[in-house]
Write a structure and sequence with these properties.
The complex is a heterotrimer. Chain B is mainly alpha-helical. Chain B has 23 helices and seven strands. In chain B, a hairpin with a 3-residue loop joins β3 and β4. Chain C is mainly α. Chain C has one domain. The chains are: A mainly alpha, B mainly alpha, C mainly alpha. Chain B: It is a multi-pass membrane protein.
Chain lengths: 161, 624, 294
């Protein structure tokens, strides 16, 4: 909700050469805005892996840092950085558009000074991230992929136990 | 001269003996075609060759002489068809390895009639060869398949109808001019038109209808799609590239000179009535063929309609009646031969490997058949008329001619058709070769060398003709000069239009294209390196398509490709369908014949018929 | 050697001017929408960044197609006279230019369809439909001018308007100019005729799978196409120019008109766009053609 004002006339992030892109192939920065449920996480990971290098992640709002008000929810994650490498976070719930712009500019400075290179960490510690992802994604079984037959089998097993 | 015809005829007999041994027949077929090509090459420029059988008979007051002679325009058509046929026959060796039936015997007979048509000296020989070609192709199309019977019957019926019209026209022409000779009768017809216009135009229209049927021009545009979708693929290649031009050849040597010099009422000072008739038929064929091709789902039907559109271009070139338009049309004949042969060979290769000709069931074949893809790509670039491949030069000349004669409607029709051509050509490219490769075609392989070599040669010929049009234009212009047209022999790479300052050098166009590609390739190499990802790694808004039951086959967008566009045209296409019109004629005939049959079966009918006959006899006697 | 250098310089020039126009265009749009807008050199930064990034490809057709796209448009550009200069000595035939332009679009379409993303193919199918929509009115306009001048050479047509501003075809045939402007809008793929891009609907259509240098090449292709299309209009209607600076200025005027329309209009659906292109501009163009012929 903070991004449309940031992009349009009032704050106009385009003056810094930043604009929205339609697909991950064209994007440099992945903005994760708001809380991340497990289903969303799965899509975030696919999107992140489809972005060509170099790529950066901007985690946005408290929810992505420590879960925010969803800190004890059963199906949201609390810290995004455990699953994909995060370069920069914006705290606040919710942050103002100024904060977005500030974060983007800080990210630019970090890129220029060579500080922001979290995507390299993802490559190096792929096992760590993968293990974390698998641990939580186990809980999400695809809803539509299942056939009714499997369901019945599962129920049968439950009944036996 | 006569051995040119005898060799195919004898080969036919020999092939009929060995019909069970595929390897022998197809090798012999190739050899015979090689001989024909060599022989044609050797008789270039010797225009006084001829072979005649003088019979003492006189029919309709005209002397009956059967003969073949070497004439320049006929040579031009025959040579390039022989070249293409040779390449197709090389392809056929590999293609027919596993086929059950053997089409080579009939095909050889068609090649015989092909040469007969192009070299016939008189209308009787021409007619005999024409008939031979008509019914032999019926057998070649069906080729033992019941499924193909419908299309083949349609084709045969149209052929016979056309032949009947031509027979009438020949008889009437012979009656009035006293000669069967083709060239002599052209002058005779001109005189008839100048003295009694209605009769002359009548004869001309009879001839024209015959030729239009064979070339699939507007009212008869339905047969290619019916025939091409069923016949054996390699023979269809021959049919679509060479046989569809049989109607163009007599138009070029007979109709165009007569119409161009006839003294008829003019329209807007640009052309006479007949010119406009031909032009409108061509324009309608070009537009209708294009629109219908856009909506096909079967690739062979798509290219059948594309042939209709291309025949339309050729007719448009004729309708301008300028030398540039005429040259452009004849040039387009050969260009279309080459590019259609290349395209249909690739389609045959695809069918050979996958057994599928519905485009939306294919996809991603570029991963498995790169050479076939390259041939197809060059073929469609040529068919779209984009430089530096062939197909551009001839279209350019036709448009130049139409513009210089201020035939604006025809020029716009031409542009509409050639822009629409991008739509259906790209649709075929994207649906067959690009996109996702379905799982069932994972182990498809590239075609074997005997099929790959002709395709490669086709690519070379397309590029050569595109960059050095002289290889076709030089024989063409010398042939036209030998016939008596006032033309200069073309140079190797330049084409001349009819407007001010309109000489284009295709060599420079090619160099510029190469320069552009080099600059852009430099940019490409200047960029950071890229990484290859598998075909299913695609942007799907973060979803995994497999989880939703979407496999590679369903992930393609190839069905209902131009749906919004189709919806625009649906009302029009529903109201204009010549097929329905023909079907109604067929139904009426059925009704009529069953009525007559009924009359015969019952006793009173016979009496009735007898009395009608007597009445007619008496009436006839009274009138005379 | 000189010829090679000349060709190379023309190519670089077209890319430079095209990118400059794109950058200024973004700024102008931003000002119309009451934004501050990016700096005018933003397009150069973007392209530089894209070429420096790593990219992904699906198969060799993608590489081939993108190179063919830019190559085809650069080749077209070399045939367009710029203030009387042409890269090589040719007759600058309009029909050749129009057909050569198609090879660039074909290459682009091929590359994106090879990526195997349905969004891309939908985008291409729309783009080709749109092409049929705008080519017919545009050619009708060109046909009128060709018949008036009796030549299809772009250079001769632009020379025929030399002298005062009253000789410009823009003044002499205002209807033709309006029709050509509308067709140009569709030709550049700007709003309201950008159904093939439609980022919110089909994820930027043809560009959906392009990354890094492929997207960069697509940007450059767009830049060159802007250059070529505006140059054709300037030659046809504004009498070319005596020096390159004036020529580019005239091109920019044409581009500004396009940008103004782009900034304020929403998007047509594809069938609405084709219906519009086949009624309004064609009607105007045919009216002009009749005025010329009769």
């Amino acid at each position: 909700m903070e991004l449309p004002p940031a992009m349009t006339s009032r704050w106009d992030v385009e003056r810094f050469g930043v604009g929205p892109m339609a697909t991950p192939r064209q994007a440099d920065v992945l903005l994760v805005t708001g809380y991340v449920s497990l289903k969303t996480l799965k899509r975030i990971i696919r999107t992140y892996e489809q972005m060509p290098e170099p790529k950066w992640v901007l985690a946005f709002g408290s929810c992505t840092v420590n879960g925010g008000i969803y800190w004890d929810s059963y199906n949201t994650i609390t810290n995004l950085a455990e699953y994909i490498p995060v370069d920069i976070t914006v705290s606040g719930c919710m942050p103002r558009p100024e904060a977005v712009i500030d974060a983007l500019q800080t990210l630019m400075k970090m890129i220029q000074s060579g500080e922001a290179g979290a995507y390299k960490k993802y490559k190096e510690n792929y096992e760590y991230y993968k293990a974390n992802q698998d641990r939580v994604l186990k809980k999400t079984v695809p809803v539509l992929g299942q056939t009714p037959k499997n369901d019945l089998e599962g129920k049968d097993e439950d009944a036996k136990e | 001269m006569i051995e040119l015809l005898l060799v195919p005829l004898i080969t036919t007999l020999v092939l009929a003996f060995f019909i069970r041994y595929k390897r022998i027949t197809w090798t012999l077929f190739l050899a015979a075609n090689g001989f024909v090509l060599y022989k044609l090459y050797s008789i270039y420029g010797i225009w006084n060759l001829s072979y005649k059988v003088d019979t003492a008979y006189k029919i309709l007051g005209a002397e009956l002489t059967l003969g073949v002679s070497n004439n320049p325009i006929g040579w031009y058509f025959a040579f390039f068809s022989a070249l293409i046929t040779l390449l197709i026959s090389l392809f056929s060796i590999g293609f027919n390895k596993n086929s059950r039936s053997n089409v080579s015997v009939i095909w050889m007979l068609i090649i015989f009639s092909n040469l007969g048509i192009f070299f016939a000296q008189d209308w009787v020989t021409f007619f005999m060869m024409w008939e031979l070609m008509g019914w032999t192709s019926f057998f070649a199309i069906t080729n033992g398949k019941d499924k193909a019977l419908d299309g083949a019957k349609y084709y045969l019926a149209l052929s016979l109808f056309g032949a009947a019209l031509m027979l009438i026209a020949i008889s009437v022409l012979a009656q009035y001019t006293g000669t069967f000779q083709i060239f002599a009768s052209a002058y005779g017809l001109l005189q008839i038109i100048n003295s009694s216009t209605k009769l002359g135009i009548g004869i001309l229209l009879l001839f024209l209808t015959t030729f239009l049927i064979k070339s699939a021009i507007f009212p008869f545009y339905m047969w290619p799609q019916k025939v091409y979708s069923e016949g054996p693929e390699d023979y269809i290649t021959f049919m679509s590239s060479v046989m569809i031009k049989y109607g163009i050849y007599p138009m070029a040597i007979f109709i165009v000179p007569v119409v161009g010099s006839a003294d008829l009422p003019m329209i807007l000072n640009t052309g006479n009535v007949l010119q406009y008739t031909i032009g409108y038929l061509g324009a309608i064929s070009a537009i209708l063929g294009t629109i219908l091709a856009i909506f096909q789902t079967d690739m062979k039907k798509l290219f059948a309609y594309s042939s209709v559109a291309n025949m339309g271009y050729i007719l448009l070139g004729f309708s301008s009646m300028t030398i540039v338009g005429f040259e452009g049309s004849l040039f387009h004949v050969v260009n279309h031969m080459i590019l259609k042969a290349a395209i249909f060979l690739t389609l045959a290769a695809v069918v050979f490997r996958t057994g599928e000709s519905e485009m939306h069931k294919l996809g991603g074949l570029v991963y498995r058949m790169p050479l076939t893809f390259m041939t197809f790509l060059l073929g469609i670039i040529a068919a779209a008329g984009i430089p530096p491949l062939n197909g551009f030069g001839s279209k350019w000349m036709i448009i130049q001619a139409l513009m210089s004669k201020r035939m604006v409607v025809f020029a716009i029709a031409m542009i509409f058709a050639s822009t629409g051509a991008f739509m259906y050509l790209f649709r075929a490219l994207a649906s067959i070769f690009l996109g996702q490769l379905p799982d069932r075609y994972k182990d498809v392989k590239e075609v074997p060398p005997t099929m790959a070599i002709p395709m490669f040669i086709m690519m070379v010929i397309m590029l050569l003709t595109g960059v050095v049009p002289g290889v076709v234009m030089k024989p063409l212009t010398s042939a036209l000069k030998a016939v008596g047209y006032n033309v200069e022999v073309a140079s190797w790479t330049t084409l001349e239009g009819s407007l001010k300052n309109s000489v284009i050098d295709l060599k420079i166009v090619f160099y510029m294209f190469v320069a552009g590609v080099i600059i852009s390739a430099l940019m490409y190499f200047f960029g950071n390196k890229s990484e290859k990802v598998p075909q299913n790694d695609n942007y799907t808004a973060g979803e995994y398509p497999e989880e939703w039951g979407v496999d590679a086959d369903r992930f393609n967008y190839s069905y209902a490709f131009y749906q919004p566009f189709k919806e625009m045209f649906e009302p029009l296409l529903e109201s204009v369908s010549i097929d329905g019109f023909f079907a109604s004629i067929g139904r009426n005939f059925e009704f009529l014949s069953s009525t007559i049959q009924g009359l015969f079966k019952r006793g009173e009918g016979a009496v009735l018929l007898f009395s009608i006959g007597v009445l007619l006899l008496i009436l006839g006697g009274l009138i005379i | 050697m000189m010829a090679v250098l000349r060709v190379f310089l023309f190519g670089i020039f077209a890319i430079f001017i095209g990118l400059l126009f794109m950058g200024i265009g973004r700024k102008v749009i931003a000002r119309i929408q009451l934004r501050y807008g990016p700096p005018f050199y933003q397009a150069f930064l973007d392209v530089g960044k894209l070429f420096a990034r790593k990219s992904i490809t699906h198969n060799f057709v993608m590489d081939l197609g993108m190179v063919m796209a830019l190559g085809g448009l650069l080749a077209t550009m070399l045939f367009v006279p710029i203030a009387g200069h042409v890269a090589v000595k040719t007759s600058t035939n309009l029909i050749v230019i129009m057909y050569l332009m198609a090879i660039g679009y074909l290459g682009m379409a091929m590359a994106v369809a090879a990526s195997g993303n349905p969004n891309a193919t939908i985008g291409v199918s729309r783009a080709l439909t749109m092409m049929l929509g705008y080519e017919v009115p545009f050619f009708t306009v060109i046909l009128g001018l060709i018949i008036v001048n009796g030549t299809s050479s772009l250079e001769l047509i632009s020379q025929s308007q030399a002298g005062s501003i009253l000789n410009w075809n823009m003044i002499k045939f205002p209807l033709a100019f309006i029709a050509a402007e509308i067709a140009l809008q569709a030709m550049m793929g700007e709003k309201p005729f950008d159904a093939m891009i439609a980022p919110a609907e089909i994820a930027s259509g043809p560009m959906v799978e392009l990354s890094g240098k492929y997207l960069g090449l697509a940007f450059l292709t767009h830049a060159v196409s802007i250059f070529v299309e505006t140059a054709i209009i300037v030659n046809l209607f504004m009498g070319g120019a005596s020096n390159i600076f004036t020529f580019v200025l005239k091109q920019f005027e044409i581009y500004l008109i396009t940008i103004f329309i782009e900034a304020v209009f929403p998007r047509f659906k594809i069938e609405q766009a084709v219906k519009f292109l086949w009624t309004v501009p064609i009607g105007i163009a045919v009216l002009q053609l009749l005025l010329i012929l009769l």
